[in-house]
Design a protein that fits this description.
heterodimer, A: 190 residues, mainly alpha, flat, B: 75 residues, alpha+beta, 434 Repressor (Amino-terminal Domain), three-stranded antiparallel beta sheet, 5 helices, 3 strands, 13% strand
């Protein structure tokens, strides 16, 4: 158990670091970023070395990003924000999950809830991936900001991955919940 | 629940304490409390056998079937 606790603590720190790094990169790119072929990037020069932070839309949103760039819209703010939200939700639920593991809660209703929410977030990501570009285009067209932005509806391997992984995580959580129920019932057999 | 456990009555008749019964039948006082309060989902034959042996009674003395209209019927 102590091994699980220690490992969970390390993973929690790692997840927290990744979340902060991603948030920092987003803020830097959103404020200082310049357009590239696949998204935006920010260059931070420290003299002796420099760091490059970039946000790339190289999956199903790539085409949408290019069209937005052609119309002089800020792709990071429009598409990056929508992409950041599911990431932050996933980091949040992972942090909670590993916090429970760290405290010795392995098969409890709390951990099952976290796993279910992770699965739901991935499925939500699939929905966002599918409909968000359409909503953005419709909004831009209806507000008269641009008339030439095409309506793009994508469904590819990225969306299939979200669907598959989200479903698998949700089903695993479901099976764990049934197991927990059996365990609780078994405890009430005297 | 239709099946009622009347362990308290039998314990009082035999002038035995719950802790002593728990010790005699080899279960924890917490589990005996679960059984007495009716929260138990099931009872093992081995546990029932031990209880009957310790209290010198029949299963029907501690397990009562109550019909929905409220009248008791011993099993």
């Amino acid at each position: 158990m102590s091994k699980i606790s220690r490992l969970s603590q390390c993973i929690r720190y790692l997840i927290f670091f990744l979340a902060v790094l991603q948030l920092l990169a987003f803020v830097l790119v959103a404020t200082l970023g310049e357009n590239t072929d696949f998204g935006q990037q920010a260059l931070v020069d420290f003299g002796l070395f420099y760091s490059v932070f970039n946000i790339e839309f190289n999956h199903s949103w790539q085409e949408m990003g290019q069209h937005l760039k052609q119309e002089n819209f800020n792709t990071t703010l429009i598409l990056g924000t929508a992409e950041l939200l599911p990431y932050m939700l996933i980091y949040f639920f992972l942090l909670r999950l590993f916090s429970y593991y760290q405290n010795g809660e392995i098969f409890t209703s709390n951990t099952i809830h976290c796993l279910k929410m992770l699965g739901k977030t991935l499925l939500l990501w699939l929905v966002i991936n599918l409909i968000y570009p359409v909503i953005v285009t419709l909004f831009i067209r209806l507000t008269g900001l641009s008339d030439s932005l095409p309506i793009i509806l994508n469904f590819g391997s990225t969306e299939l991955n979200y669907l598959l992984i989200g479903s698998i995580i949700y089903v695993i959580a479901w099976v764990m919940q049934e197991g927990l129920l059996i365990k609780e019932q078994q405890e009430l057999v005297i | 629940m239709a099946i009622i456990i009347e362990l308290d009555v039998m314990l009082a008749k035999r002038k035995m304490k719950s802790n002593d019964l728990a010790k005699a039948i080899g279960i924890t006082p917490q589990n005996l409390s679960v059984l007495k309060s009716g929260r138990a989902k099931a009872i093992r034959f081995s546990t029932l056998d031990s209880i009957c042996q310790a209290l010198d009674c029949l299963p029907g003395d501690i397990l009562i079937y109550q019909q929905k209209d409220g009248s008791d019927e011993q099993t």
